[in-house]
Structures are given as structure tokens and as C-alpha cells.
Design brief:
Belongs to the IlvD/Edd family. It comes from Sandaracinobacter neustonicus. InterPro entries: Dihydro-acid_dehy_C, ILV_EDD_C, ILV_EDD_N, IlvD/EDD_N, Sugar_Degrad_Dehydratases. Keywords: Iron, Iron-sulfur, Lyase, Metal-binding. The mean pLDDT is about 95. The chain is about 35% helix and about 10% strand. The strands form four sheets. A five-stranded mixed sheet has the order 11-10-9-13-14. Strands 2-1-3-4 form a four-stranded parallel sheet, sandwiched between helices. It has three domains: about 280 residues, 3-Layer(aba) Sandwich (Rossmann fold); about 40 residues, no CATH class; about 160 residues, Glucose Oxidase, domain 1 (3-Layer(bba) Sandwich). The chain is an alpha/beta fold. Helix 5 packs parallel to helix 6, helix 7 packs antiparallel against helix 8 and helix 12 packs antiparallel against helix 13. The radius of gyration is 24 Å and the shape is globular. The structure holds FE2/S2 (inorganic) cluster and magnesium ion. The site of magnesium ion has 6 residues, from loops.
Length: about 600
């Protein structure tokens, strides 16, 4: 390895080769020796590359990273760096109660402290399950140390009795079949297990695939990284290449602030729509952008609303990630968007080249899965932004609106896109599960199911509960979905066209707090309006009543989270954290 000079002196020098505090050098060096590393290595002037390890037995979607880290280390060593792997707070979307949303900001805080407090010059961010991607990118933005994303990759495609079964999506569909009496619980379990055939994160275009695609679209990973299935040989190969590149970005001082620009986020938003990405992309993109000092407004979402759906993947389409990868993956989608000028190819990326240079020549090889821009699966497939007297902001993912839903609610001649429905209001998901089949509620196809108490403060954390399914009796009549609305979120794997992420939430004084079962709602998708048809005097009267109940905090973090976290419209970030920028520019003072 030829001697190279870093653009900026490595911060690890301040620990291991600091002439002003030579008294500290021995203390900083000695304990690293106990796994065989030598003082000569740590004092060689080579960069120390952190591997932020998100995989563990508690994070099965990311567990592949425990093995991939071997190849990352190989890449780091071969490129002249010194790897140091460390654990992150685990995040597992499906299993974490009361919600993994609590973990995003906690893992963010943890990673900021690690990167700030230890001798790390650059870091490989190992991403996978939903919130593991935004939490690490948020921390990288706060620190502004050179950082590169390595996705763990999705599972192989799931098959059950000759049908593709996508993770998550199969759960929502099988639940409806269970309610209709079409399958039993054993069959439900068989379908769910078939959807998860290998190591990796969700193989549908749920939040995990969406966020890893966004990381690639932002330019924070090597091209093609997001969609390589976890078990493929290319996954180990790109782990090696990512480790090697991490050393180069340390020398080049290529930091997140060079890449996470407003234009990069606008590109990522366009990509989100073209891939049929998760509604969770909205708060996560806003959160990452705000930590990077970039403002994303509701109008920015409106500006990408007319983008078409190009990627034919569940839940909006048919296929799964393995086939999407073989069809060309994210580089091929970016090529489509670049060709029509819907993204800016001049942005900088982690390769040191522009986005356009990264994807040059990478076109789709399977038009069944990646459609040409001129012949999309759906036109105008973006998130609709709604507001009204119940909330200031909510979104609706239009790419999952089914033909049946469209014809029942959105196709009245002369009133296209406009419908009225009677609200049935639930206080959290326990209330929903207890009462949804209660005949006294008289739920019919003219109802909208509303859930509150499911936002960042109310839950706490904001839960994926808005995709409420209709009463069993209605499903048996063939009505498999009703309009839904809530101040929580829903799984990116859900095919429900809910109105969700409503902000401010009920628990923060939003209008859902005064909504009552029986109120009529008027939803005008053309105007982006959702209003309860309730007189102002009546609203005022209800506001004098006690607000809806929310559960008490059960852990210290839940209490801190509720105190410091903002609303989903603003990314549900720790608002006090935003003032900390470029923390990595200085090293903390010595500990003795
Ligand atoms: Fe972890 Fe879907 S549950 S990726
Ligand atoms: Mg989820």
C-alpha cells in the first residue's frame, strides 16, 4: 500500500498519535491489544473504519450482516484501513412491542454517541429492516463523518403452491382470507412462513426495500446495492467493495454533507414513487433530510405526485425483489427517471462520481418488472397530500388503490375522486380489535374506519395500525377493504389505500381528538381535502370535553421520546437534536 495523505488528518490520530497528550497514548492503545491488534497498526496512520453492526439474533432481517462483516473487513484491510466492528441498538420491525418506531431515534442517538466518542474515521452503515436505514443515515448526517451504506439485501422470493408470496403483504391478504373463512390458521402460518425463505429483509416493496432503495437513490451506497438478495454471491462481493470504498472516502473526506443535498432528497422522493415505495418513506425522508439540514415540504411531495409507478412489485404490483434485482434493480429505475429528466443525474455520490455516471448503461432487462416511463403500470402514482379540519397533513399512497376501491368510492359520475363516509372511531388498536365485529357499530360500505392514539406521542412511537380490515361479516360479503384514516402509520407491505400519518395527532391536540363515531367525513382527493362535516360550535363544545385516553409511558425512553419527538409530518425526529450538526468536525475532550 503506497503512502497516501488524507484530505483532512484522521481524527483517530487524536487518540493514538497526539503529541500534545502523549500521556494518554498508552491508555488509548493498550486494551485494543487484547484481541491481537498491535500498537504499530493503530499508529501506522491508516484510517480506522467502523462497521456499525445492525445484525443480531434480535434483528433477524439484518442478521446476514454478522457474516457479511467478514467481507467488509477484508475490503477494508485490502484497501489499507483498520476495521472496528461495533453493535447498534437492535431494531426488528415485526416483533418489537409496542413498536419499532421507538427504536429509530434511540438507535440514532446511540450511533451519534459512538461515532463521536470513539476513534473512528469513516463508517460502514449496515442496513436492512425498515428503520435500520434511516436511523443510521440520520446519525451519519448529524456527525458528518464519511459514511457508506451496505444493505444486507432482501430475502429470496417466497413461493407458496405456485404463487409468489411477499413478506408482510401475504399477512394482510391471508388475514382477510382467514376472516372470510377461506383458510384456517394452519394455512395462514404456512403462507406466512413461505414468504420468508432465506436470510434477508422483506422481499416485497415494503419499508425495508423502500429505505434501502432510497439510500441507493440518495447516492449513499454503491450502485445496485439495495436489491441484491442477501444469499447471492454478489452480496458478499459488494460487501467487500463497500469496505474498500469506505477506506477511500476516509482519505477523500467524502462526507454525507457532500451527498445529502436537497436535490438528492428530491431524487429519492421521485424514486420512491416510481418503485411504489412505502408510505413510511415520508417520515423517514423528512427525518433524514432535516438532520442533514434540508427542508422537505408538503409541496415537494405534491411535485412528485404525477410520477408513474414503474416497478411491478408487491404490494402495488405482482413480483418480488429477487426478480426486480435480476431485472436491473434500482440503477435501471434511475436510468428511466434520468432519461425523462425527472431526477437530476449531476448530484455527487459515494463513488466519487455523479449519479448519472454510476448508472450509465444500466437499463432494464425485464420489462414485465421494470416498465418504461412511457408505458407505466400506473400514471400519477405518488402520495396524495391531504389536509382539513381534522389534521394539517396526511398522505395517501395512491399506487395501492384497487380497482374495486376506485369504482366504489372514487368513480361516481360527476364526483370523481370525492366521497363521503360515516366515521367509526377507535382509540388505539386494542379498541379496534375488541369492537370491529360489534354489530352495534353497524359498519357498512359507507363507513370510514378511523384510528387515533396511534401517533408518536399517543402510542408512543407511532404504530402501523391504520390498515384496519373491515368486520368479518363485510369481508364475507366481498367487501375486502373500507376507507381508513389515522394518526398512525401502516406497514409498507400493506395494500390498503389509507389516509395516514395524520399530523398533528390526536394526542398532540389534532382534530381527530374531537371526532365522534357517526360524524360524516368528506374526502376530496382532487382538492387534497379531508373534512369532518361538523359545525364549528359543536367542535368547540367537544373540545371542552376530556381528550381521548392514551396509555402511560412504561419505560424511561418512552417518556423521553414523548417529550422530545415531533409529529410524523415533520419526520417524528428528536426536535432538540436538529441543532447538532457536523459534530464530527471536532473530537471530544480527553477522558483523563
Ligand atoms: Fe424486518 Fe420487514 S420485518 S424487513
Ligand atoms: Mg413496518
Amino acid at each position: 500500500m503506497t503512502a497516501r495523505t488524507p484530505v483532512r488528518p484522521f481524527r483517530s490520530r487524536d487518540w493514538f498519535a497526539n503529541p500534545e497528550r502523549a500521556d494518554m497514548t498508552a491508555l488509548y492503545l493498550e486494551r485494543f491489544m487484547n484481541y491481537g491488534i498491535t500498537p504499530a497498526e493503530l499508529q501506522s496512520g491508516r484510517p480506522i473504519i467502523g462497521i456499525a453492526q445492525s445484525g443480531s439474533d434480535l434483528s433477524p432481517c439484518n442478521r446476514i450482516h454478522v457474516e457479511l462483516a467478514t467481507r467488509v473487513r477484508d475490503g477494508i484491510r485490502d484497501a489499507g484501513g483498520i476495521p472496528m466492528e461495533f453493535p447498534l441498538h437492535p431494531i426488528f420491525e415485526n416483533c418489537r412491542r409496542p413498536t419499532a418506531a421507538l427504536d429509530r431515534n434511540l438507535a440514532y442517538l446511540g450511533l451519534v454517541e459512538i461515532l463521536n466518542g470513539y476513534p473512528i474515521d469513516a463508517v460502514v452503515l449496515t442496513t436492512g429492516c425498515d428503520k435500520t436505514t434511516p436511523s443510521q443515515l440520520m446519525a451519519a448526517a448529524t456527525m458528518d463523518l464519511p459514511a457508506i451504506v451496505l444493505s444486507g439485501g432482501p430475502m429470496l422470493d417466497g413461493w407458496h403452491e405456485g404463487e409468489l408470496v411477499g413478506s408482510g403483504t401475504v399477512i394482510w391478504r391471508a388475514r382477510r382470507k382467514l376472516a372470510a373463512g377461506e383458510i384456517d390458521e394452519a394455512e395462514f402460518l404456512a403462507q406466512a412462513c413461505a414468504s420468508a425463505p432465506s436470510a434477508g429483509h422483506c422481499n416485497s416493496m415494503g419499508t425495508a426495500s423502500t429505505m434501502n432503495s432510497i439510500a441507493e437513490g440518495l447516492g449513499m451506497s454503491l450502485p445496485g446495492c439495495a436489491m441484491i438478495p442477501a444469499p447471492y454471491r454478489e452480496r458478499g462481493q459488494i460487501a467487500y467493495e463497500t469496505g474498500a470504498r469506505a477506506v477511500e472516502i476516509a482519505y477523500e473526506d467524502l462526507r454525507p454533507s457532500c451527498i445529502l443535498t436537497r436535490q438528492a432528497f428530491l431524487n429519492a422522493m421521485a424514486l420512491t414513487i416510481a418503485i411504489g415505495g412505502s408510505s413510511n418513506a415520508q417520515p423517514h425522508i423528512v427525518a433524514m433530510a432535516r438532520h442533514a439540514g434540508v427542508e422537505i415540504t408538503p409541496d415537494d411531495w405534491r411535485a412528485v405526485h404525477d410520477l408513474p409507478l414503474l416497478v411491478n412489485m408487491q404490494p402495488a404490483g405482482r413480483y418480488l425483489s429477487e426478480r426486480f434485482h435480476r431485472a436491473g434493480g434500482i440503477p435501471a429505475v434511475l436510468t428511466e427517471l434520468l432519461a425523462v429528466g425527472r431526477i437530476d443525474g449531476n448530484v455527487s455520490t459515494i463513488t466519487g462520481r455523479t449519479l448519472a455516471e454510476n448508472v450509465a448503461g444500466r437499463t432494464a432487462t425485464d420489462r414485465e418488472v421494470i416498465r418504461p416511463y412511457a408505458d407505466p403500470l400506473l400514471p400519477d402514482a405518488g402520495f396524495l397530500v391531504l389536509k382539513g379540519n381534522l389534521f394539517d397533513f396526511a398522505i395517501m399512497k395512491t399506487s395501492v388503490i384497487s380497482d374495486a376501491f376506485r369504482s366504489r368510492y372514487l368513480s361516481r359520475p360527476g364526483h370523481e375522486g370525492v366521497f363521503e363516509a360515516r366515521a367509526v372511531v377507535f382509540d388505539g388498536s386494542d379498541d379496534y380489535h375488541h369492537r370491529i365485529n360489534d354489530p352495534a357499530l353497524a359498519i357498512d360500505e359507507n363507513c370510514i374506519l378511523v384510528i387515533r392514539g396511534s401517533g408518536p406521542i399517543g402510542w408512543p412511537g407511532s404504530a402501523e395500525v391504520v390498515n384496519m380490515q373491515p368486520p368479518d361479516a363485510l369481508i364475507r360479503q366481498g367487501i375486502s377493504s373500507l376507507p381508513t384514516l389515522g394518526d398512525g402509520r401502516q406497514s409498507g407491505t400493506s395494500d390498503s389505500p389509507s389516509i395516514l400519518n395524520a399530523s398533528p395527532e390526536s394526542a398532540a391536540g389534532g382534530g381527530l381528538a374531537w371526532l365522534r363515531t357517526g360524524d360524516m367525513l368528506r374526502i376530496d382527493l382532487n382538492a387534497g381535502a379531508c373534512n369532518a362535516l361538523v359545525e364549528p360550535a359543536e367542535i368547540a363544545r367537544r373540545l371542552a370535553e376530556a381528550p381521548p385516553p392514551i396509555p402511560v409511558s412504561r419505560t424511561p425512553w418512552e417518556e423521553i421520546y414523548r417529550e422530545k419527538t415531533g409529529q410524523l409530518a415533520e419526520g417524528a425526529v428528536l426536535e432538540m437534536a436538529l441543532k447538532y450538526r457536523q459534530v464530527g468536525d471536532e473530537v471530544p475532550r480527553h477522558n483523563h
